[in-house]
Each structure stands twice: as C-alpha cells, then as structure tokens.
Sequence to fold (535 residues):
Amino acid sequence: MWTHDAVLYQIDPSLFLDTNGDGCGDLKGIEQRLEYVRSLGASTIWLLPFYRSPFRDGGYDVTNHLEIDPRFGDVADFVSLVERAESLGLRVLVELVMQHTSDQHPWFQAARADRDSPYRDYYIWADTPPDDGLEPMFPGVEDSVWTYDEVAGQYYRHMFYAHEPDLDTANPRVREELHRVMAYWLRLGADGFRVDAVPFMVERAKLADARDDGLWLLKDMHDFAWRRTPGAILMGEADVSVHEYEGYFGDRDRLTHLLDFWNNNHLFLALAREDAGALVDSLTHGTQPPMSHRHAIWLRNHDQLDLDQLTDEQQDEVLDAFAPDARMRVYARGIRRRLAPMLDGNPARAAMAHALLISLPGTPVLRYGDEIGMGEDLSLPERTSVRTPMQWSAGTNGGFSTAARDALVTRPIEDGPFGYPSVNAESQTWQPGSLVARVREMVMARLGSPEMGQRWRPVRHDCKAVFGLRYGDDDNPTALLLLVNLSGQAVEFAIDEAGVGELVQVLGDVVYGECVLARVTIGAYGYRWLRSRQR
Fold:
C-alpha cells in the first residue's frame, strides 16, 4: 500500500505533448516526458480521460470506455507507456468515468430508441421530472438536471451537462459494465483509478440496496479490483461533508484515497487571509483516514476551484482575494484560474503555496504546469480557462506541438507574463531558485522525511501568519517541524515545543541562521523545515 511519500502528477493527455504534429497531445508524448515527471519526485501519474469521446467535456463524455480515442494513439501506446512508467518506478492511474456517459454512447442511443431495449434501464428516466431537490452541478449553464428527449418520449437525468446522461448504478447490469471496465484497464497494467463523481454513484446504488447508505458499492468495487490487482488504488472524487469521509473509506475496504475538498477549501481561505488559523482548524477538526489510506490534497486541478465547503461569508473572502473580476468566476461558487495568477504571479508566493501543500499529511497532487507557474486563458469558456497546453520551451507553440496554430486542440498562452516565452519548463529546469527547482527540492525533502508517515499535530507558536505542523510523537526524541509563512511580511516568533532538542534546517526558501526556539525568523512567503539533530 502507499506510503507517506507518494506524490501524484496530474496530466491531461490532450495538452501535455504532441508527438505526431496533429495538434493534440498523445500517449507517446506522455511517455517521452516521464523522466521529467520522475525528476520532480512524483511516484504516480494520474491521466485524465483518453477514451473514445466527442470531447465536449474534456473527454469525460465517454462513448466507449474500452477504446482509446485515435487522437491519443492505441492500446499498444498505452501498454508501452505503462511499461516505461514501471521501469522508472511510476504508477499509473486512469479515470473511471461510470457515473454518466456521452449522449452519443451506443448504450444511450439504444436506450432512447426503444423502451424495451435492455439498455433503457442503464439510464434514469421519468415521465415528469420529480421534485427531488437535485440541482445541476453547473448552474448558469444547465437549468435543470432533467432534459426531455423527443425520441425517447421521456425525461432523462444528468447531474452534469445535458449531453452527459447519468448511468443508474442501481441496475446490476450497469455494475457488471463497471466491473468490465475496471478489469480491462487493470489487465492492461493500470495501477488503479481516480473514480469520478462518487456520491452520485452511491446515491443510485442505495436505491437497489439501502445497506450502508449505498456505500457497499465502494466495497464491491474495492474487492473486485483487489482480487485482480492487490493494492489497486481507488481515489474517489467526493465533494461531501468532511464528516462523511469515514464512510467512504470504510474499514480500509472501500476507497483507498479520497480527494480532500474540505482542507483544499480551507487552505485557500488561509491563503486569502494570510492567516494559518483556518487551515489548522480544518485539519484538527476533520477526520483522519484509516492507517495506510490517505486523503489526496492539492492546490489546483483541471476543474474550477469549488468553494462548497466554506460558508457564504468565507466564500466571499476567497473570491474577493483571488477572483476580483467577474470573468474569473464560474458556477456562482467557483474560481476558474490557475494557481500562479491567483497569487499575483509572485514566484515566492507560489513556492510558499507548494511548501504548504507538501507539508500537509496526505498524498499531494501536482497539476501539470503549476510547478512552473503557468497561467490561465480567461477567453476560453467555463473550466477550459485552466486547460491550456504544457509550456515546455520558448519555441513554437511552447514546445507542445509542431502543428499550425489553427490546428491545435487548444492554443497555448503566448502573451503576457504567463506566456510560454517567459514561463516554460526548459528555462527553469537548470535555473537555481526557479519555481520548478524549489518544488523538486520540496518533494525530495518529503521523500527523505520518514517522520511524515507518523502522527502529527499543530506546532505551538504565537504567530498567526505561520502554519506549522510537528511530525513525530511528543515522547520521541526526534521531531520534524514544518513552518510556512503565509504573509508577505517577514516574521519573528517563539515556538513552545519541548523535547525536540537542537534543531537544524533541512529545507528553506533561503538558508537561515541557527534556530533558537525562543526567536524563529522566516522571510516573507518563506518556509523552513526543521529536524531534531538526533535524527
């Protein structure tokens, strides 16, 4: 099972590297850049959808779960990628998108054409939309979760877009299809799945069997996967109350990892306030996963920064700080921006945010391009603003593709402070003190810190701008103190920690002098990791 030092790197196959000049990234491009990923210290790549799809929703609108879309390559390319990853010590996660399909999927086309089709009950239908209180996930884009289909003569449910009808996991035949998809990709060498939209799958399963509020479905998936690939990863997307997390883990027999929206939201509240209190409180009042299981933690991903876990007043604080322009907001509650521009393009502040991420208990997830400080393109609609090609170099199309600009699946950011002439991996890779160099240094420090697999608690100190965790038992003569200054002002403060002995710096934004607990200094947006000398 995973250890404390696992780090994920999230890749969008269509936007990473194009090797055949057709304007779209491909699996061969990912394989060619695995050494780069490994150099960051990542242990796992998480691949966004590469299945057959019309790509109206970034590939999450699947038309065949068992077929690779030709734009990405073929099965041989996937197997080659997995084999190369394995040779480098990298695991491979793929998306499991079984909460819905594309409306172009053969299942849905058969279902809408014939009420007697066995595929009719693969989906959720109603003669009249029920008053179930369900709201669309994309308010302002979709008005309802029910759409009338003229061919079918009924309404079908879709929690997401109208072109993505919901599958009904209450139907045992749908669960058989789910197993078939899992078995196929595990057999081809995938190490597990990021499971999309888990709460809605559980909600439907509960209708078939109310046991454990439908969470039995996750145990069923876990058991199926582990019989074929012992230790397979099931990382669930579940933007639910933190008090529900325990049920999603079960007794170490459901999800192995849970994407932690609770702490993600409070991390940004702390960054907005430049006050660590919100994040310290969310960590200490949250729930802890079972031993050997993990929360997955991140800064930004391929979607909007959804602020559902905050109060209305807290949401306003984060929106005002990081999305002051209405164009930067989406779905009435989210931010459609990349990390670097949210932090005013300040490399020191971006490095501080990564230091904060990598200090936290759980499994860090790095979004491709955040390690070099990529920006967003607000001219693109909805969440696609944060989905632009990886900026490898200052060359044509940022080194992403040799295709003509009009042939690109999405144009890279060229102009402004975040354009590829200024921000790219090539220029930062060998530049001491660059953002990517700092991120690499942080991840390597995490890899070399076995204490981070032990118990933790907040560091006792008297500076509200400083986030601090102590790893290691209080009665243990060794300790690791991780300190991050969220503010743009240098700070000096006292630490009230007994039994740590003499402390030495193992990581910092700069080389600080000798550490005296009564008088610790950290620069603006700085960070320090301190370890007992006994260690």
About this structure: The mean pLDDT is 95. The radius of gyration is 23 Å.
